[in-house]
Amino acid sequence: MGDPVSEARRRIVIAITGATGADIGIKLLQTLRRLNVETHVIISKWAGETIKWETDYTVSAVRALADHAYSPHDLAAPISSGSYHIDGMIVAPCSMRTLAAINAGICDDLITRAADVCLKERRRLVLAVRETPFSEIHLRNMLGVTSAGAIVAPPVVGFYTRPSSVEQVIEQMTGRLLDLFGLDAKDFVRWEGMRKES
Ligand SMILES: Cc1cc2nc3c(=O)[nH]c(=O)nc-3n(C[C@H](O)[C@H](O)[C@H](O)COP(=O)(O)O)c2cc1C
């Protein structure tokens, strides 16, 4: 039998929160569409501001990249319940506020509730946390969510790929996040050993 969703199109929740790096969440939605994965997006109020500030997208254009889009206030959305099957969730970028709320188990918006559901249902939850430098509070929250079953995967540059554009950096970051779901985006450079000098 197996998991009931395994027979169907895979479903992933993408939450975009108000840390810098809105392009990472946007690229995830674009790539998942190309990989024929059903997406459910939630955009926090402050992510709405970073989308406006950092990208050429409007919030409604980002919502249109997903199969389903929800208000962060909609706690009656299907993804608010563990009985609605999804494969997992990526919060990218994940602010320190959202990280702290998830670690504390505070479910007062749809992002933190959907993340809490992933943890209780033992589904994959990946947090692309973004801040620098980290305080002890941030690090404690990261340890807390990791102990609870989440994967903390900060968007950190892999310089070994010698990226020549921000686009390439984002492709590598999003490709590595999707690797955690067994999905191969096939649009970024993987390490294949040292180049031989000729
Ligand atoms: C331009 C901009 C950049 C920000 N970058 C970060 C960041 O990298 N990390 C972070 O934790 N918060 C960052 N913040 C602050 C968050 O937006 C703020 O803490 C907010 O309450 C997060 O709410 P949310 O988790 O509901 O999106 C930034 C805010 C702005 C306006």
Could you tell me the strand content as a percent range?
15-25%
Helix content: 25-40%
Over the alpha carbons, how many angstroms does the gyration radius reach? 17 Å
By DSSP (H or I, 4+ residues per run), the number of helices equals 7
Q: Tell me the overall shape.
A: globular
Residue-averaged pLDDT: 95
Describe the main β-sheet briefly. Answer: 6 strands, parallel
Describe the structure.
- With 198 residues, this protein is α/β, with parallel strands linked by helices.
- It has one domain: Flavin prenyltransferase-like (Rossmann fold), CATH 3.40.50.1950.
- Helix content is 37%, strand content 15%.
- The protein contains 7 helices and 6 strands; from the N terminus they run βαβααββααβαβα.
- The chain has helices spanning 22-34, 45-54, 59-63, 96-104, 110-120, 136-147, 166-179, and strands spanning 11-16, 38-43, 68-70, 88-94, 124-129, 151-152.
- Strands 3-2-1-4-5-6 form a 6-stranded parallel beta sheet, sandwiched between helices.
- Strand 1 (11-16), helix 1 and strand 2 (38-43) form a beta-alpha-beta unit.
- Helix 1 (22-34) crosses helix 7 (166-179) and helix 4 (96-104) crosses helix 6.
- It is globular, with a radius of gyration of 17 Å.
- The N and C termini lie far apart (54 Å).
- 41% of the residues are buried.
- The mean pLDDT is 95.
- It binds flavin mononucleotide.
- Flavin mononucleotide binds at residues 17-20, 44, 46-47, 49-50, 53, 95-98, 130-131.
